[in-house]
Structure formats: C-alpha cells, structure tokens
Design a protein that fits this description.
By secondary structure, this protein is an all-alpha fold. The protein has helices spanning 2-21, 34-45, 48-66, 72-86, 97-120, 127-160. The chain has one domain. It has six helices and no strands.
Length: 163
C-alpha cells in the first residue's frame, strides 16, 4: 500500500509540474507530455502487465484532470505501457538511447491514435498543420525530457522496490 501511495503522490507531482510550471515554456500551447514519458519508463522498468496498469492509471488521471474526452489518454497510455513492458526484458534499462527513441515512437503513436479518434468522432482538421505545429514541437519537448524523466522514474522505482 505504501508503494502505491508513493507512486500516486509521484504522479500527482509530475502532473502538477506539467500543468503549472511547464506552460511557461510552451510553444503555441504545446508542451511535453511528462506522463507519457513516465508511462514508457515504468513499462521498461517493470513488465507488460504493470506497464499497462500504470498507463491506465496515468491516462485516467490525465483524462479526469484535464477535462478532455474521457478515455483517449487512458487508451493510448495503456497501449504504450503494455508495449514498453513487452520490451522490458529485452533491452538495457540503463541505456541512454532507449528512453530517447521510445519517447519519439510513443509520442508519434499517441498523436496518431488521438488524431484518428478525433476523425472518427467527426472533427475535421488539416493533417499537415497538425503534424507541423503540434507533433513536431511535442517530439522536441519529449526528446529533451525523455532521459531526465527516465532517470527520475528509475530512481523512484529503486526507492519503492524495497517498501
């Protein structure tokens, strides 16, 4: 129970940091998705079931806190946590390239799934403009924060593993 509460507090702090401090550095309303990075890191550090569960909780928390369509972030982060968890035993967790490459792939996957869901809901938009003005800055931000977030998550995982 202590471990769950520690992780819940950690996620609340990450989301509070993302929603209160990070908007100071947003580019046209776009900033890093720190919970996406945390989900990928948790998946890599654990296994597919825990990664999927973490993605579900992180995405649900983000959906409830942000007021967007309920379930979009939950769905995408759950899949990302599951897929990253599949690769958890096959990759080196201390590798610098792992969280960086995974952040790009996770960001692109999440963006495409959300855009497809928005199209299925009947919204129309210019794909090229969204790729240029939403996805490109999001990838850049997530690239910058991928390694520090992975190090913090790994530190948190090591601290809570002996609880």
């Amino acid at each position: 129970m202590k471990k769950f509460l520690a992780w819940l507090l950690f996620v609340i702090l990450v989301y509070a940091f993302q929603s209160s401090f990070m908007p100071l550095f947003y580019f046209h309303g776009i900033g890093p998705d720190l919970l996406l990075l945390v989900t990928g890191s948790v998946g890599f550090l654990t296994d597919r079931n825990k990664g999927c569960f973490a993605g579900f909780l992180f995405g649900l928390f983000e959906d409830l806190a942000s007021g967007t369509f309920l379930g979009i972030n939950t769905f995408t982060k759950m899949i990302i946590g599951y897929v990253c968890g599949i690769f958890s035993k096959r990759v080196l967790n201390d590798s610098f390239g792992l969280p960086v490459v995974a952040s790009v792939l996770n960001t692109v996957f999440s963006f495409i799934v959300i855009e497809i869901i928005m199209l299925l809901l009947g919204y129309s938009f210019d794909w090229l403009a969204h790729f240029q003005f939403k996805l490109a800055p999001l990838i850049c931000y997530n690239l910058v924060f991928a390694w520090p977030v992975h190090c913090i998550v790994r530190w948190m995982w090591n601290k809570t593993s002996d609880m």
